[in-house]
């Protein structure tokens, strides 16, 4: 194993220790078992610590590595001492063996505690990228997605790591396809392989499985990139993500030619080792983009393209066929039947006709089967008759869509599930949809409970019917879903298959524009539909409007009359030239607008303009990857606002007006949600004057260090969640006045050394999550007054502090949080 740490302190210490351990293990047999264990631990640490050191060097944060260097120096002393102990000194051999064993355990513990989930390699990687962005944009705006949830969190933020693959894929052809594709990828040389088949046949699923194959991972290692291309590919964005994925400085790219040049430079940098690039879901119109990824200078470079279309210019082509008839019938029965003997055995002909209508495609079979699950076979026949009436033998895609559409017509008597399914199409293709945004939208559109429990249940119903996928990227919220309105869905994402989204768009595009209940618009450049740009439309009836613009959009918004809109979703991309996004003026006249979701889908953050158009009737606002003048929002009139969310935003804390006061602007705010906003250092004091505030969620904000001293004035607070605020060292004494707080989450607040002395006055405190509080070593005496405390979440080492309180607090349960006993998760 090579050790190439650029000669710096930590790298040198690590290299010296590793070399010393290997050498002494060979020459001193007495300590061979202990030294081999240390060598194994260091071997696991090597690629991780190299990456962390490099990135922290770029950030000028090497002081943070001092504890690791001290531990490595201690190890050198212990290993050197092995050479000084005489072979016949059994006592010293025994005691020193124990010291080596304890040292090995200490090294592992240090890496699992000092560098926990929210401060490992991905954290440093994203820190570096956001530092670069801030410098390049002259501190105008910034954003940071600290990698606290490791690879799965980065996947949710459009990282190019290979998504997780299912354990089992249906179909006899799967193993044969995997074997053939594996053989082609393991051959040396450069090639473009096209995996083609109809939509919903499992192409993407097969590639996920293949990329996680042991032999493929062994050959390509970290040089596997999984790129969703979609119908409107953005080459600039893809190239920038490829740079970030590989740990290089992200370039500013001003044109497509520039993007191609940067791409070739990147491929030459990483092409010393084999490279595997998956271009997933390439549309026929985007065939030319594949050419831009070809690089003849790399000797072992594989590109795998998945597409519904066969591209004649690229060979070889592998066809993934639908299931066999028998496999399709078996899958249908697995998804459709329940253990109910009264239903009897389904008619063979009935099953055959249904699966043929599904074109023997796994996705379509699952959706249709689950829409019939538990229904009597008479109902199956009724649906088959409808399919026979609407099917088309001339166009398989039309028939597939007809089949899927019929399966949505009857949702066990609950049409609301179909409405929720249709709403997913409001988000861009291949988008991982934040569940919090969905809940905000559904709560207002359908008058659901404001805590989102019914909305989340409806989403699970869609997932159970294979109409959506759900990805949960964080463990830190999984223990909060019990009672007292603390439901927290940050880190939860929904996805919709492209085939299903196409169905949604087709359904939404029916009928006259003015009468549609749901309007989904995808704009190319500055081209608006004629009915809009010519100002000929009547007032629109849509309650949900989604408008997506690409990076070439730059014009002013034409007026749009939306008297009935209740939820507005704005999806946009910005480039390095514009750097800004202007909210459309027509928002100001949308008097019934309740939910506004603004999402920047670009690599770089964007500055929002035109804030004055945000209306007084808004109840929920969600911002993602934008610069938000938080204090200047005090100039707005948001008297109906109940919840505001910021995700990966640069929250400007300067005000354009001395008179701007947040409590005057949003006096009825109930929930404040700030996640991955790394520039946030403190909350403005004015927040403490918003008396109805019930929930403060500040999570993964690594520079957040101060709660307002007046926080005790927020007597309505029920939830205080400060998860992964790694710079927070103190909770103000006034927190003791928060007598309605039921949940206090201080997990991963690594610098927090003490709880408030009078925490016992928080008499309704029901739960404390304090896992990862490294410096918190004792509890204040007043803790015994927390008679309603029901659950504490912490590590085993911290549980000893709570043990003696069990007699005083009989309802208290201590939930132990334990890390994996290995370091593999860091990779």
Automatic annotation (TrEMBL):
Signal peptide limits: none
Keyword Hydrolase attached:
no
* Entry-linked InterPro entries: Apaf_helical (IPR042197), LRR_dom_sf (IPR032675), NB-ARC (IPR002182), P-loop_NTPase (IPR027417), Powdery_mildew-R_dom (IPR008808), WH-like_DNA-bd_sf (IPR036388)
Which GO terms are recorded in the biological process aspect for this UniProt protein?
defense response
**UniProt KW Repeat keyword:** yes
RPW8 domain location is: 1-149
Matching entries from PROSITE patterns are given as: RPW8
Alphabetically list the UniProt keywords: Plant defense, Repeat
Protein family membership = Belongs to the disease resistance NB-LRR family.
Protein name per its UniProtKB record = RPW8 domain-containing protein
**Organism the protein comes from:** Eucalyptus globulus (Tasmanian blue gum)
Tell me the organism's taxonomic lineage: Eukaryota, Viridiplantae, Streptophyta, Embryophyta, Tracheophyta
